[in-house]
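Problem: given the chain below (171 residues), write out its structure.
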Amino acid sequence: MTMRGALGFVFGSVAGVVCGVAAGLLLAPRSGAESRAMAADAMNDAWDSAVDAYERGSKAVTDKVGAVRPSVDATSDELRAKVDLARERMDQLRDSLSETVAATSAQVQEAVSSVTDKVTEVAAEMDAADEVAAEGVQVEVVEEAGEVVETVEAEADADAEAVEAEDADAE
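Solution.
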């Protein structure tokens, strides 16, 4: 039942009681004083009955709330403890993850530096080898019958073999 329907029922009941009392007073075979005394007694009895019902209901509600409260308090304390434990665990996981990321980052930086150094060394060695091999090479271009013939002296071959041998020893 909606709140509006409940209020309508209560007001209708009160209006019905008022109309019934008025009709009873007007149509009663007793005298006015006697009817007023009976009406006053009936109203006092109804009032006392309503007060008693309110007190019984209030006590019942208070007792039920008092009986449920320890259970609710225990459950809420348990939930708070679980939430606190979960927060602590999340903090631990966050710290652990941060440490792992920092350590891994340092390892990656070291690996990148190592690879960069090796690449630089190999590039320097290759540049040096190219310069040594190029020093001993002499190229002559001779044109015979429309063809270009290149001749390379034997020294270039020997120098190139010496450089390759030094590279093999260095590795």
